[in-house]
Amino acid sequence: MSIHKQVRRVTTHVLYEMKVRGEKIAMLTAYDYSIARILDSTAIDIVLVGDSASNVMAGYETTLPITLNQMIYHAESVVRAISRALVIVDLPFGTYQGNSKEALTSAIRIMKETGAAGIKMEGGREILESINRILSAGIPVMGHLGLTPQSIHKFGTYVVRAKEKDEADKLIEDARLLEEAGCFGLVLEKIPAGLAAQVTSEIKIPTIGIGAGSEVDGQVLVLHDMLGITQDFSPRFLRRYHNLFAEINGAVSSYIDDVKSLDFPNEKEQY
Questions:
Q1: Which residues are catalytic?
Q2: Domains of the chain, each with CATH number or no CATH
Q3: Residue 127 phi, psi dihedral angles, 5° rounding
Q4: pLDDT, tens digit (0-9, with 9 covering 90-100), for 120-158
Q5: Is residue 68 within 8 Å of 119, Cβ to Cβ?
């Protein structure tokens, strides 16, 4: 006798249908159970357990230090909270580049140990062998082109990518290769809006933009950035919907004042 859990309503096929009918896809990051539960109470379509956890959760300057074990820890925490959205997990740096066997092993670990719906990988032709090997195991893969943060030391800067014709042509070619390989979607990060629109119109799989204009199939932001928890990162593409840094700072300051003044706990807050 088997016990079937409720199937998540957002699937890779649902995302494809959203692109076909022109419905935009909303995607945000999450790294822990409590925040993921809040996202699950909304109509968010995709939750990305991003390697940006290296920055916002661990305090590193880049995404490179985070390990596969750490990504699995964050991902399994998020998956426990999600009942509707599609949960995708970043394969961290060093777990798939240049070694397709290790790439498959890493992807299988994420799928088996977290219960996520798929993985995301940065790069085009140079990682195609790893993508093909992972896809051959039936694991859904989302691509990521443009500014690829795991390659920051190669780029040397976080400026807009693919502004020149050669790099733009390569990005278009890579997008087609990823689609032909079987990727279900593609993140386009920090590239000219016109180029993102061209890629979106030329491939059938959904494109998710971050700093890639409005003519992509969806948008993604880092949750801590859009909620104003992080304050030292303000690129043009970021819209802050709240200032949680100020709210949390104020709440903690009030708590400290109440403790110091013996106002907390009062008679109603003790046994």
A1: 189
A2: 12-240 (3.20.20.60), 246-271 (no CATH)
A3: -115, 15
A4: 999 999 999 999 999 999 999 999 999 998 988 887 778
A5: no
For Cα atoms 165, 158, 25, give the angle at the middle one, nearest 5 degrees: 80
DSSP string, the chain: ---PPPPPS--HHHHHHHHHHTPPEEEEE--SHHHHHHHHTTT-SEEEE-TTHHHHTT--SSSTT--HHHHHHHHHHHHTT-SSSEEEEEPPTTSSTT-HHHHHHHHHHHHHHH--SEEE--BSGGGHHHHHHHHHTT--EEEEEES-GGGHHHH-S-PPP--SHHHHHHHHHHHHHHHHHT-SEEEEES--HHHHHHHHHH-SS-EEEESS-SSSSEEEE-HHHHTTS--S---TT------HHHHHHHHHHHHHHHHHTT-SS-GGG--
**pLDDT tens digits along 91-118:** 999 999 999 999 999 999 999 999 999 9
Q: Which of 55-65 are b and which e, b meaning 16 or more Cβ less than 10 Å from the residue's Cβ? A: bbeeeeeebbb
Backbone angles phi, psi at 144, to 5 degrees: -155, 115
Q: Are 158 and 134 in contact (CB under 8 A)?
A: no
- Tokens describing residue 159: 């400026």
Parallel, antiparallel or unpaired: strands 25-29 and 218-221: parallel
In DSSP terms, 118 is beta-bridged to 88
Instruction: State the amino acid at position 78 in one-letter form.
Output: V
